[in-house]
Amino acid sequence: MKNIPNTQLDENMLKYLTDNFGEKNVSVSNTDRAAYSRDLWPLSTIWMLHENRMPYPPDAIVWAENEEQIAKLLKLANEKKFPIIAYGAGSGVCGGTLPLYGGVILDIKKMDKIVEINDKSLTVRVQTGIIGQHLEHELNHKGYTMGHFPSSIYCSTVGGYLAARSAGQLSTKYGKIEDMVLSLRVVLADGTIVETTSTPRSATGPNFTQLFVGSEGTLGIITEAVLKIYPLPESRIFRGVLFKDIASGIEAIRRIMRSGVTPAAVRLYDELDTILVGAKKEESVEAPIQYEPEEEKEDLVKKVTHKIFDGLQNILLGMPGVAGKLAESLHGKCLLIITFEGDSKLTETELKIALEECAKAGGEDKGEEPGRRWWENRYNVSYNMSKVFWRGSFTDTIDVAATWDKIEPLYHAVRKAVSPYGLIMAHFSHAYIHGCSIYFTVISRGRSEEDAAKRYKKIWDAALAVCADFGATVSHHHGIGLSKAQWLKKELGGLMDVYRSLKQVLDPNNILNPGKMGLTEEEIDIAALTSKK
Amino acid sequence: MKNIPNTQLDENMLKYLTDNFGEKNVSVSNTDRAAYSRDLWPLSTIWMLHENRMPYPPDAIVWAENEEQIAKLLKLANEKKFPIIAYGAGSGVCGGTLPLYGGVILDIKKMDKIVEINDKSLTVRVQTGIIGQHLEHELNHKGYTMGHFPSSIYCSTVGGYLAARSAGQLSTKYGKIEDMVLSLRVVLADGTIVETTSTPRSATGPNFTQLFVGSEGTLGIITEAVLKIYPLPESRIFRGVLFKDIASGIEAIRRIMRSGVTPAAVRLYDELDTILVGAKKEESVEAPIQYEPEEEKEDLVKKVTHKIFDGLQNILLGMPGVAGKLAESLHGKCLLIITFEGDSKLTETELKIALEECAKAGGEDKGEEPGRRWWENRYNVSYNMSKVFWRGSFTDTIDVAATWDKIEPLYHAVRKAVSPYGLIMAHFSHAYIHGCSIYFTVISRGRSEEDAAKRYKKIWDAALAVCADFGATVSHHHGIGLSKAQWLKKELGGLMDVYRSLKQVLDPNNILNPGKMGLTEEEIDIAALTSKK
After folding, report:
1. Among B250, B256, B286, B284, which Cα is nearest to B270's?
2. CA distance B51 to B449
3. Pair B148, B165: CB distance under 8 Å
4. CB distance B353–A342 less than 8 Å?
5. Does B36 have pLDDT greater than 60?
6. Of A178, A212, A346, which has the smallest distance from its Cβ to B261's Cβ?
7. What is the bridge-based pairing of β-strands A104-107 and A60-63?
8. Buried b (16+ CB within 10 A) or exposed e, B300-332
9. 3-state DSSP call for residue B324?
10. Which of B214, B262, B237 is nearest to B431 (CA)?
11. Residue B280 near residue B323 (C-beta atoms within 8 A)
12. Structure pTM?
């Protein structure tokens, strides 16, 4: 394990940790410290893959088994002033768990009990360390679903969902994590344990559940939650509809949502993303490339472009079932996937209404196959992203959202702004009656680790500057973490001071996940983090 | 104007107010001060009607025309340390706007502009002083609805909805006010103006919109909001279904919600409330009375009971269209009203599914008439409540909520606890998949103003103690104000300290609506308020 700084933990502290958590639940090994030094933030992957560097390891990792241990730990951390970083399964993509200032990683995956399933109220009380898929699996066994299907479901926890304000692929029907939660138990920085009332709704002052949801470990440690569950759907129906361009596809989604039906998912792929979803492997090279690199020489461009498509092909490799079936008919068109689930009488009526709206927007009904294929492969893309990195390139996804009036111009403006620095494509998902999210995928590479880091930052700055201009949000569901902290400040404006005041009173010693969410005085330049250590 | 304390406003302050707001927008007249000394909190009505007392008048009232005036006012209030109480239309029923410590009432009804209706995004930007019905009326003209129909719609403002966490009669379809709002503009205590991002959703830290929603004027003054709107429904269908008892009616609602349909409204009346909704005037006297008064002598009981029914009859007088039509068939049964609205194909399918669920729970379909009658008379009860007071009695409504597993036992327990102090009936509404609210109506009276105040407090204490035991919320949609402040403390537990900390940093001089929401150190005994002044 090279290039990893030594732990700063002294013997007394180590003894305290082992006394509190038990020896098996404390580690200062360099292997563990390396593993917990990063999440799935692409920049930290660049550090590791380019030069095998893990510049921000924690001093120790502890695995909590109950909230009393957490309360004790926080009390000590306040006394000794060391950072505590709550950690679920590390699937975050914004560097939210990076121990920028060292400290202790508090892993809660051992707190993974399903405390109670309430059949009458359709609720489940869980400890937040449970992996999403494990919970879903157990619920399915009893005839229920949580309806929360982030593509990270196999490697993410309920605590992570709540802390980072997650949204799953069927969010249009089942809501986002903030809609799914009835109540929370939270250990505050001073060790106090609080619980919000478990009721479908109340008019009892500010919503404190929604204060902790999305706080990304900066205001408290979420240890338990009462979540909504639903009967497994009686029917699930799919459809693919093809549109001549992105504008008509967007118009179709807007019309569908406005009609009053509730799809489980609506996803519209732009021309390039449609090809990637549907193309045969060998055809992907002929894709209409937007990539206009600056700086590099022409032969390098070719090399890089080939490298990129090498990576793209690897993504496609992860979706063998999808590839090859639709390519011919899809070139230059945009595919809309729509699914409904629930009572079969209801879903049939809803699909009928939705298809009428699609037809009004010029859509061509392609039957259920494209939709079913998406469903069967819905998690694959995320788990094949890493192959792009192995080929020396990097990729990231930019999840923004806005109201309908802004969606199409926002899409074009972000593409235009980012194109000089990488290949960019997008799909539109998480539809609402009032707008939707745009999920951009960008693939690029740098000539060195530092060059890649600079280019990475340029991509984000270009994209999010456009969002700021449009009054769009800089994150629909990936959260803020470290990577978007400066942009959060811009988005919140004067509310950033409210957040800082809140942080100051709830965590006066700044022990909870310091350096994140723009709460620090100093500006943290994410590109500079690469060269610093 | 007797029994009204003098204004404490000095000449300098008055000059400042008139300079800032203009002479026509400032009043220190006793008539205005009396009018603004109370809202629709029944205890303050008791004070006024029994002895024509208005013990808590403001020192002045100002009518703001823009947020810059508000910002200036708050800066001065911080300097001079006087209370500012934001005021919409005064329809609150919890004493939330009572100027307990004097100060300035900040009426925002002149800030009533519809700034923009966005047809594409289905949003409306409004100043928060607009009356709910005025906004709805304008929207209807353009083919839209906000879908927010509190029974106070004619005498309440958007600002009041947001500040006090309102829910309308069609909340099951259109959501509650927190679901309807995309963004807010807020003037903070120090005069800073902040605005949250107007996006359907974001993962950008804690939800600051939801921090101000429900804060009842204690954390900031909400001046503008972007709200969701919807196309006017193509169809609206109604149904009444009769159940043999409350248990089977509750079971029907639970089944309907679980089936995946989305009613606009579901309302189940208990036996007594069913009679009141449906009975002929002369039959109401024969209602199965639960009233078991303690303390009074038997002849007084008769007198009081007659008085009460005098009041009840007056309520019924307000619903002439409802009375008399259903009485025969309804005795001892419970009426469920259900409505759907939207695309006619969808609503027909949904009604079919809902009626199947009702049949499974033993319901007897009574056709569309009971539902339509409810719709046509849906606001009448509230506006006839005051007649009860004119007869020397008092009435109040207790709006609690819980998950389905608790609903029926909670209903019986609250009824049992309150029955010694008044006549109590209830309906179940605002249904969710996971639970619903219970809306109790209590009618009682005291032998004097002080006796009535004591009895009033006993009723609330009895009801809310039961809620606390059950882990139900003490308010589904009426808010907290002054009357439930002590119970909010119990419900929030350790989170009350979080709220207090928040108040401390956002409003260090406690100028914003002081003495409310349990934020004061001192315990305010609402019954003692009656005898104090």
Report:
1. B250
2. 8
3. no
4. no
5. yes
6. A346
7. parallel
8. eeeebbebbbbbbbbbbebbeebbeebbeebbe
9. coil
10. B262
11. yes
12. 0.91
Of B434, B476, B495, the CB nearest to A202: B476
Residue in A closest to B255 by C-alpha? A120
Average confidence score pLDDT of chain A:
89
Quick check: A202 and B345 CB within 8 A? no
Stretch (H or E) spanning A485:
helix A485-492
For residue A180, give the 3-state DSSP assignment.
Answer: helix
* CB atoms A502 and B497 under 8 Å: no
Q: Which two tokens stand for residue A366?
A: 């392609």
Instruction: Tell me how far apart the alpha carbons of residues B160 and B222 are, in angstroms, rounded to a whole number.
Output: 9
In the beta sheet, which residues pair with residue A104? A60, A84
- Half-sphere exposure of B53 toward its Cβ, with a 13 Å CA cutoff? 15
Between residues B529 and A86, the one the model is more confident about: A86
Candidate from B176, B203, B473 with C-beta closest to A197 = B473
Among residues B475, B456, B466, the alpha carbon closest in space to that of B518 is found at: B475
Q: What is the mean pLDDT of residues B253-273?
A: 96
Contacts of B301 (CB under 8 A, 6+ apart): B293
* Residue B529 in tokens: 């308020």
Query: What is the rounded CA–CA span in Å between residue A2 and residue A4?
Result: 6
Structure tokens at B72: 């200036």
Put simply, the answer to whether A480 touches B203 (Cβ < 8 Å) is yes
How far apart (Å, rounded) are the C-alpha atoms in residues A443 and B243? 62
Residues from chain B contacting residue A494 (CB–CB below 8 Å):
188, 192-194
Three-class secondary structure assignment of A301-360: HHHHHHHHHHHHHHHHHCCCCCCCCCHHHHCCCEEEEEEEEECHHHHHHHHHHHHHHHHH
Other CB atoms within 10 Å distance of the CB of residue A258: 16
Hey, what are A93's tokens?
A: 């993509």
**Tokens 């709006």 belong to residue:** B399
Residues in chain A: 533
Residue found by looking up tokens 């969410």 in the block: A517
User: Which pair of tokens denotes residue A327?
Assistant: 């390519």
On whether the CB atoms of residues A111 and A93 are closer than 8 A, the answer is no
A vs B: CB pairs below 8 A: 287
Tell me which of B350, B403, B436, B516 to substitute to probe the interface with A (most A C-beta atoms closer than 10 Å).
Answer: B403
Specify whether the CB–CB gap between A187 and A220 falls below 8 A.
yes
Half-sphere exposure for A437 (CA within 13 Å, toward CB):
27
**The two structure tokens encoding residue A414:** 């972000």
Cβ burial, residue A526 (10 Å; 0-12/13-18/19+): buried
Q: What are the residues whose beta carbons fall under 8 Å from the beta carbon of A302, sequence distance 6 or more?
A: none
Mean per-residue pLDDT, A454-481: 97
CB B469: neighbour CB atoms within 10 A?
11
Under DSSP, is residue B391 helix (H, G, I), strand (E, B) or coil?
coil
Which residues face A172 on adjacent strands? none
The structure tokens listed for A149 are 């299907």
Cα distances (angstroms) measured from residue B482 to each of A360, B100, B208: 53, 9, 24
Q: Is A39 helix (H, G, I), strand (E, B) or coil?
A: coil
Query: Which value, to the nearest 10 degrees, does the dihedral of the CA atoms of residues B19, B20, B24, B26 take?
Result: -100
Asked whether the predicted pLDDT for residue A524 surpasses 90, the reply is: no
Bridge partners for A365 per DSSP: A241
| pLDDT tens digits along A96-138 | 999 999 999 999 999 999 999 999 999 999 999 999 999 999 9
Place of tokens 């001079």: B80
Show the DSSP H helices in A81-208 as ranges: 132-141, 158-163, 171-174, 177-180
